[in-house]
Design brief:
Elements (H helix, E strand, L loop, with lengths): L1 E5 L2 E5 L3 E5 L2 E5 L7 E4 L3 E2 L10 E3 L5 E4 L13 E2 L1 E4 L4 E5 L4 H6 L1 H10 L4 E6 L1 H4 L10 E4 L8 H13 L5 E4 L4 H9 L4 E5 L10 E3 L12 H10 L24 E5 L12 H15 L2 E4 L6 H13 L4 E3 L6 H9 L3 E5 L2 H8 L4 E4 L5 H4 L6 E4 L18 H4 L3 H15 L12
Parallel strand pairs: 1-10, 11-12, 11-14, 12-13, 14-15, 15-16, 17-18, 17-20, 18-19, 20-21, 21-22
Antiparallel strand pairs: 1-2, 3-4, 4-8, 5-7, 5-10, 6-9
Helix pairs in contact: 2-6, 4-5, 7-8, 7-13
Length: 432
């Protein structure tokens, strides 16, 4: 048993086990936080000639080997007296995911890191197209854009990125991004604690390679995947039942505007028919006297214009924002929408996390694993024998999407509009 010291308070810590084998002491630290150290109060009272060591930084694996104590064959009978001291992590780097929807679903895990280390400086390393997601979040102190060059200069750009991170002297890197490259960068940056899932052949680059959860070990929704990484690494609590996925939203007044995002980056299999988006928007707009706003990337502008042409021909005011906004500008505009109609997409996750009433049409993908989770998020789907197939393109007749009718979407949207008038799903967390 060790004495636990944190901010001058001593407490018993009973769940430590020691195994002494030759000159090596194995310390089971499965119940210890990530940043406890053993330092110069360690002695072995049994065998003569036992030495003390200055300090040892524990990792988050099941045990750590300490060669700082020399013992004799009679060492197994010795008594160890340990003084534990809490050393808080001061600078933490989070490697964000590359896809917008995944980045939104990792938000509960980011909040856990802030709750666990309230005084730490938390920086997020993110690709430019997701960096704005964190701009208003109180749990992030700084966003570092990650823009390595491609082609011939690829490796040189990685080395420069690693050198830049090395100069920051981070204590710990937590990788929500799964790629080998994410681990290689923080390894090259000499960040002493590197936590991530052991996948993509990168486990040897991590100080804390965490086993990937097997099917059935955690709830299926993807937000639990990131929370489980923290839990298994000793950085987070037991998984909560229903952690909210939410973004800070400075907008408290919504406008009579229907947001529509008819695209989907993964492929056309995820897309509901554009003319049905248009007809549903017209029906809801006429019921409430609302205008329509279309959102998408530059590559989706023609698709959005196809929807907009039908809406415009029906006499409803419409603006096509596709390709005209940054992520931050999209978030500002989406936050003011009275309701948001969408496919399974990054825009869906963003609107739902902003607290906007969101109706999402699902077909090829699984709403249980990647569906919206906001207080006023609803999923519309018609189950068919081949869905969810998780394919980019439908090889047959797109029956999962064609089965979703305009009438059913209109009814669901009007009901959601009515339900959302009664109360807000949460109080927006404003941050300038």
């Amino acid at each position: 048993m060790g004495a636990l010291s944190h901010n001058g308070t001593l407490a018993s810590f009973r769940n430590l086990s020691f195994q002494i084998s030759g000159p090596r002491i194995n310390i089971d630290r499965s119940t210890l936080p990530l940043s406890w150290i053993v330092h110069n109060r360690t002695s072995c009272a049994g065998p003569p000639g036992a030495k003390t060591a200055d300090r040892l930084l524990l990792t988050s694996g099941p045990s750590v080997d300490w060669n700082g104590v020399s013992v004799t064959r009679s060492a197994p009978s010795c008594s160890l007296r340990l003084q534990w001291t809490f050393i808080p992590l001061k600078k933490i780097l989070i490697r964000a995911t590359n896809w917008l929807g995944d980045a939104v679903m990792s938000l509960p895990a980011l909040r856990v890191v802030r709750e666990r280390f309230p005084s730490a400086e938390i920086s997020v390393l993110a690709r430019p197209w997701v960096a704005d997601l964190y701009a208003r979040e109180s749990f992030v102190d700084r966003v570092i854009p990650y823009t390595p060059a491609g082609g011939f200069h690829y490796l040189a750009a990685k080395r420069r990125a690693a050198a830049s991170l090395r100069a920051e002297c981070f204590d710990c890197a937590i990788l929500f991004q799964n790629a080998f490259e994410a681990a290689a960068i923080v390894w090259l940056a000499d960040i002493p604690r590197r936590v991530g899932y052991a996948r993509d052949g990168r486990g040897w680059l991590l100080t804390d390679p965490v086993p990937v959860p097997r099917h059935g070990e955690i709830p299926r929704h993807e937000r639990f995947y990131y929370l489980e990484l923290l839990r298994r690494a000793g950085l987070g609590p037991e998984l909560p039942a229903n952690p909210p996925v939410r973004l800070a939203n400075p907008c408290t007044d919504r406008e009579l505007r229907i947001g529509i995002s008819p695209g989907a980056a993964y492929g056309t299999a995820k897309r509901w028919l554009p003319e049905r988006f248009a007809e549903t928007a017209v029906n809801v707009a006429r019921e409430h006297g609302a205008a329509v706003a279309l959102f998408g990337s530059a590559s989706e502008r023609a698709l959005c214009e196809q929807v907009g042409a039908v809406v415009r021909a029906s006499g409803v005011a419409v603006h096509n924002y596709a390709g005209e906004t940054s992520l931050r500008e999209f978030m500002d505009l989406a936050a003011r929408c009275r309701i948001f109609l969408t496919n399974d997409s990054g825009a869906m996750h963003t609107a739902s996390a902003l607290g906007v009433p969101t109706l999402a049409v699902f077909g090829a993908t699984d709403d249980v694993t990647t569906g919206p989770t906001g207080g006023f998020a609803r999923v519309l789907r018609r189950h068919v024998e081949c869905s969810p197939c998780l394919l980019r393109e439908c090889p047959i007749d797109h029956r999962c999407m064609t089965a979703v009718t305009v009438d059913s979407a209109t009814a669901a949207a009007l009901l959601l509009w009515k339900e959302s008038e009664r109360e807000a799903p949460w109080t927006p967390e404003a941050k300038s």
